[in-house]
Write a structure and sequence with these properties.
This protein has 420 residues and is α/β, with parallel strands linked by helices. The protein folds into 2 domains: 4-32 and 282-410, Beta Barrel (Lyase, Ornithine Decarboxylase, Chain A, domain 1), CATH 2.40.37; 34-278, Alanine racemase (TIM Barrel). Helices cover 28% and strands 25% of the residues. The chain is built from 12 helices and 21 strands. It has helices at 18-25, 34-47, 66-74, 84-92, 109-118, 128-140, 179-187, 209-227, 254-264, 278-281, 314-318, 405-409, and strands at 4-7, 10-13, 16-17, 29-33, 54-59, 78-81, 100-102, 122-125, 145-152, 174-175, 192-198, 234-236, 271-274, 285-295, 302-305, 324-326, 333-339, 348-356, 363-366, 388-392, 395-400. Strands 4, 14, 15, 16, 17, 18, 19, 20 and 21 form a 9-stranded mixed beta sheet that branches. It has an 8-stranded parallel barrel with strand order 5-6-7-8-9-11-12-13. α2 (34-47) runs parallel beside α9 (254-264) and α5 (109-118) packs across α6. The radius of gyration is 23 Å and the shape is globular. The model has no long low-confidence stretch (mean pLDDT 97). It binds ligand LLP. Keywords: Amino-acid biosynthesis, Decarboxylase, Lyase, Lysine biosynthesis, Pyridoxal phosphate. The modification N6-(pyridoxal phosphate)lysine is found at residue 61. The active site is at residue 343.
Length: 420
């Protein structure tokens, strides 16, 4: 459930009319609902309430806006970060270093050192050499790095290939059968406190079965590691729960997920860690856009909007569906293609879709744009970087400015030898 709804025929974000934000900030603009973030954070936590020890690390890659992070810090969430840039955001939002997990297949030595110095709570190791380097960096500094090994359980998550991470041919994690040997070799290193294992098999999962299969394998690994004499106090179960994008999509509820986790992890006697991203952020944001033209097409008209693939990349990258509705629908429908102004055919949000009838100048929203939306935006075609607005009740604020094309241009220069 989210807080984007029609009131007297007009789309609101909580108690603020979308049209009012568009008039003030311009379009395209992302609008987030703080109450929806809070609700999702609570529902996810409640879904896990049967579990004895839980640590929640919001995967901030989904939506790293610092105001959003502040809301989630308020809700007691830590962060899963994948770069020092993300770590700095989590800290800037008031999250505690010990509540931060550092994931990622390509953490550089400089990033490992910066995260050690910041005192973050857990490093999720992706390969043995990373563990050796981290141990040395920590030891040199008189520190001990808390770490787990991310294993690749070789499970097909049944999601889009580009966001699937748990099959053995993917770049992520250590093959599960190699994890015990790696554990033996790393566990004794000074500077490293190896506490357990992690896995994350993919994103936008519509079915709990692959997660259950992965977690069952992790359970066997935990037993094997303990039998080999290792102390295992943490298991990080990653993120991945899907959200509904299309009307009629049915996704597993956090409560069903929690029940499955409780069943599979019974008796593990560890602190369970979770890295939810999309399930917290997805339906907490929309992308507001204005119709520039309705251009006649061969089969259907093209609704050309002022948002493009550089603002919301998911349709171009993953053929993702984002619901498109008018801010002030007039009750009529049309079948249309929806596209942005960028000069490539991939800049298409939908083909042959039945939508609210719109004409140029009308406002519309793409729903479920709170996760992997603004954070994946670029300035392709020298378009400004899209701004973000956070609403809570009747209040709203611009929480990220529109970065003008001129500002971006001002960071570039023509070298001496090309100056006339
Ligand atoms: N933990 C790790 C280690 C991850 O790699 C990810 C997402 C998450 C947690 C959070 O997963 P979530 O709960 O959001 O499914 N840009 C793509 C999604 C990429 C997901 C990357 N990793 C999209 O727009 O669909």
């Amino acid at each position: 459930m989210d807080h984007f709804h029609y009131r007297d025929g007009e789309m609101f974000a909580e108690d603020v009319a979308i049209a009012q934000i568009a008039a003030e900030v311009g379009t395209p603009v992302y609008v987030y609902s703080a109450s929806t973030f809070r609700r999702h954070a609570r529902v996810f936590r409640e879904g896990l309430s049967a579990l004895p020890r839980v640590h929640l690390a919001y995967a901030i890659k989904a939506n790293p806006n610092v105001a959003v992070l502040r809301v989630l810090a308020d809700e007691g969430y830590g962060a899963d970060v994948v770069s020092v840039g993300e770590m700095r955001r989590a800290l800037a939002a008031g999250m505690k270093p010990q509540d931060i997990v550092f994931s990622g297949v390509g953490k550089t030595r400089a990033e490992l050192a910066a995260a050690l110095e910041a005192g973050i709570g857990q490093f999720n190791l992706e390969l043995e050499e990373e563990g050796v380097v981290l141990a040395a960096l920590a030891h040199e500094r008189g520190l001990t790095a808390p770490a787990v090994i991310r294993v690749n359980p070789d499970v097909d998550a049944g999601t889009h290939a580009k966001i699937s991470t748990g099959r053995k041919e993917n770049k992520f994690g250590v093959p599960i059968d190699q994890a015990p040997g790696m554990f033996d070799r790393l566990a004794g290193l000074p500077g490293l406190d190896l506490r357990g294992v992690a896995c994350h098999i993919g994103s936008q999962l519509g079915d709990l079965a692959p997660l259950e299969a992965a977690y069952a394998r992790i359970g066997e690994l935990v037993a094997e590691l303990r039998a080999a004499g290792h102390g295992i106090s943490r298991v990080d179960l990653g993120g991945g729960l899907g959200v509904p994008y299309k009307p009629g999509d049915v996704m597993p509820e956090p409560a069903a997920y929690g029940a499955m986790v409780a069943r599979v992890t019974q008796g593990w006697d560890v602190e369970l860690m979770f890295e939810p991203g999309r399930v917290i952020a997805g339906n907490a944001g929309v992308l507001v856009t204005e119709v520039v033209w309705v251009k006649p097409g061969v089969a259907n008209p093209y609704v050309i909007v002022d948002a493009a693939m550089n603002d919301l990349a998911r349709p171009a990258l993953y053929d993702a569906y984002h619901d498109f509705v008018a801010v002030r629908p007039n009750g009529e429908k049309m079948t249309a293609n929806i596209a942005g102004p960028v000069c490539e055919t991939g800049d298409t949000f939908a083909m042959n879709r039945e939508i609210d009838k719109v004409v140029s100048g009308d406002l519309a929203i793409f729903r479920t744009a709170g996760a992997y939306g603004a954070t994946m935006a670029s300035t392709y075609n020298s378009r400004p970087l899209v701004p973000e607005v956070l609403v809570e009740g009747e209040r709203y604020a611009v929480v990220a400015d529109r970065i003008a094309a001129e500002t971006i241009l001002s960071a570039e220069r023509v070298p001496d030898w090309l100056q006339k």
